[in-house]
Amino acid sequence: MREVLLLLSACVLMFLGFAWLALSQQRHAERVAASNRSRALASRAQRAIGLVAITLGLPCCMASQGGSFGSLLWAMLLPACAMAVAFTLTWRAHWLRPLARAAEKAFSRSASASASFSPFER
Amino acid sequence: MEPTFRKSMACLHTWAGVVIGSLLFVIFWMGTLSVFDREIDRWMTPSTRLPAAVAQQRFSFDAAARAAQPLVQGSPQWFVRPPSQRVPAVELRWRSESTKAFERRYLHPQTGALLEHTDTLAGTGFIFPFHFGLHIKWKNVGYWLAGLAGMAMMVLVVSGVVIHRKIFIDFFLFRPKKQLQRASLDLHNLTGVLALPFHFMIALSGLVIFMNIYWPSAMHGPYAREAKPEDAFFAEAYGSYKRAKAGAPAATASASLDAMASTARREWNGGEPFFVRVWHPGDANSYVEMRRSYENAVTMNVDTLSFDATTGAVLSWHTAAPVMGVQRFISGLHFIQFRHWTLRWLYFAAGLAGCVMIGTGFLFWLEARRTSHAKKGLPGVRMVEALTVFSVPGIIAATLVFFSVNRLLPLDAALAGYDRSELEVWAFYLFWLAALAHAALRGRRAWHEQTWAVAALAVTAVVLNWITTGQHLGHTLGHGLWAVAGMDLLLLVGAGVAALSARHLTRKARTFQTGIAQDPQFPAPAQPGNKASHA
């Protein structure tokens, strides 16, 4: 039971982490919010949180399945969760609306400070 | 030479993709199916569809050996595999004295009775060897082609990353409603980039498995002083212990295999013997080789124990040395013989992603050049299109024909000197050849015609299983026959995906002819970023 719960936690964490990453990109944020409203995004902080969530999947997997199976499982869950997010954005973007709203609330203040030339922005 | 590095990589990626893509898809498809090769065996050999409880009961090697005696009489070697979760029956194989080929039969784990024999190569005998050797044994050409494909895969993946300018911006991007060219490129990039570590790892590990084929001279370096360098290498790396026949019959009856198995379990700290081979049975120099199960680790161990058949004394004990251990770990990442269903399904999904990546790469190349080749009268698109339809929906349909013919042929089928298993293989190749002819004749329409054929054949296979065995999905799900249920379910899901794809391809072909459709879904980006290729 514990193994299953830890594995599920890893999947959820990684899916949310990738979704958080996707929502830090303007194109996907606008699609999910179903509006053309251009909003400044605190991309760097949002992406950091996304990456941390994804990375936290690794100790969850290892706690669930041991060292070697756990790390291999995490490595194989990366493409699976990322693709799940991509397909959700393509066909059921509104499912991510609660997450987008949470992102907006969390990062609405630090908008102007993080205008960036990072590779994630155009 | 192209003016920039990126342009050179684009040229390399395009050429390597077009030339080797067909071979690559075939290997990726057969490899993806091989993830569930034993489940395919269950589906194609109905008598081995035993419930899981049967496999879990206590197994006796001695009882299996007694049951095997009438079959393996006179054979120079025979081996047995105890029942496991994926193979609930006892698998018995021996080298036939007359044909020198290996025969395979399944025995019931408790009664030792011979299960009804379906003469088929099935997943482990046809699909899996196709993956690593293309069934071309002449001068190891099949292995070398697979190796070439593996190398090409790594080159393609690396060059693909170099030419993908907006790799992070496009990370989650997939726009199926756009023109076929753009949608294909989106999906090609998605399946390529998101599963990039997998694609690189699977190609590299595949090459590492066959290290002695692809680097044949390497073993002659450290073992140059030995009489036979290759034999010395294999003995030290893989632990292949050999003892020649004495030519005289054994003095006493053979010792207990179960006792040897207990010794093995002790030596391996609880590791189970999963493979027991008797060499020179009945001879004075007969010996028993036992190998350790792969179920509990990623590493495919080479732990081998050899026992004298009459006294039961340990003759040889082998385990992988450190560097060989690394090779065995890397091999294990590719072979996935461990017992872990989540990982197995994830590997299957990643393999399918690889197949989609190769297929959409072709679709993109074709769409990008369709008009210009037609205008200039170049044959490129026509040729590549025929080859692509042949190697993508064509081989999928041929595989489904292989499954369907397995259900249709009677158990004692034979024709023109070919036995039943050979007839199944003939059906596969003949249909595949017909798919090539169809693709050459029908041009662009062949895409959706063959994709519809895939959908129809997948449903046919499920129906044939129902008709010939009575074990439809309701029965298999209710009785815990997960292998058969899984296969039927995947066939049905595959049929659905094929039907949707066929419809999409048909619609997109018509749209292309009538004009470019605007996509209202995605807000247009500020710069003209969604035009054709990257170079």
What would you call the shape of chain B?
globular
State which percent range the strand residues of chain B make up.
Answer: 5-15%
Number of strands of chain B: 9
The Cα radius of gyration of chain B reads 26 Å
Q: pLDDT average of chain A, as an integer?
A: 84
The profile of the biggest β sheet of chain B is: 7 strands, antiparallel
Secondary-structure-derived class of chain A: mainly alpha
Quaternary state of this entry equals: heterodimer
Net shape of chain A: elongated
Helix content of chain B: 55-70%
Q: Helicity range of the residues of chain A?
A: over 70%
Note the gap between the termini of chain B: 14 Å
Helix and strand element order of chain B? HHHHEEEHHHHHHHEEEEHHHHEEHHHH
Approximate strand percentage of chain A: under 5%
Tally of contiguous helical segments of chain A:
5
Computed over alpha carbons, the radius of gyration of chain A is 15 Å
Number of helical runs of chain B? 19
Structure description:
- The complex is a heterodimer of chains A (122) and B (535).
- Chain A is mainly alpha-helical.
- Helix content of chain A is 73%, strand content 0%.
- Chain A contains 5 helices and no strands.
- Chain A starts with a helix and ends in a 15-residue tail after the last helix.
- In chain B, 58% of the residues lie in helices and 8% in strands.
- Chain B is built from 19 helices and 9 strands.
- In chain B, strands 3-2-1-4-5-6-7 form a 7-stranded antiparallel beta sheet, covered by helices on one side. A two-stranded antiparallel ribbon of chain B has the order 8-9.
- The longest helix of chain B has 36 residues.
- At the A-B interface, helix 1, helix 2 and helix 4 of A face helix 7 and helix 13 of B.
Question: Quick recap of the structure?
Answer:
The complex is a heterodimer of chains A (122) and B (535). Chain A has 5 helices and no strands.
